[in-house]
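The instructor's notes for this session suggest beginning with a concrete chain rather than abstract definitions. Hand out the sequence below and ask the class to guess, before any prediction is shown, which regions might be ordered.
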Amino acid sequence: MKSVFAAIGMLVLTAGMAAAQDKAATEKALIASEQKLNEAVAKGDKATFTSMVAPDAWSADSNGFSKVSDFVAMFDQVKVTSWKISDTRVQWIDAGNALVLYTWTGAGTFAGQPFPSKVYVSTVWTKKGDKWLAAYHQESEAAKPSAPAPATKKK
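After discussion, reveal the predicted structure:
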C-alpha cells in the first residue's frame, strides 16, 4: 500500500515539474515572439508582423487607442534606427493568456515624428488553437528625468 502512495506521489510530483517546465518554455517562447515582433517592425516586415497579431487586436500609446489593423496600414511610416528590449518578464493571466512586460529603448520615427527613446511596454498574448497571438499592446513613455535644482549662491 505504501508503494502505491509513493508511486502516486511521484506521478503528481513529476506532472507538476513537467507543467513548470512547460510554463517556463512557453514564457521563453513568448519573450522570443515579442522580440520577433519588434524585429518585424524595425525591418518593415508586415507579413511577419500580421502573422503574429490577432486580426482584432488593439493597442494604446500616448496617442490613444487604435486598432492594430490601422497601424498595419501605416506600417511604411515607421522607421526604426535602433532598438533593444530589456527587463522582460511574463505575468500569467490564465492558462491561455499571458502578459509580456519589458522596457523598450531605441530611436526612430513614426510619420516623420521621433518616438520616445524609452517606453514601458506590455503585450497581452492569447492562445488561439495551438498558436499564441498578440491581442493587445500598450506603450507608456518613461518619465523624463527631472532637471537638477539650480545651484544656490553662497552669501
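Then share the key points. The radius of gyration is 21 Å. The helical segments are 2-43, 46-51, 68-73.
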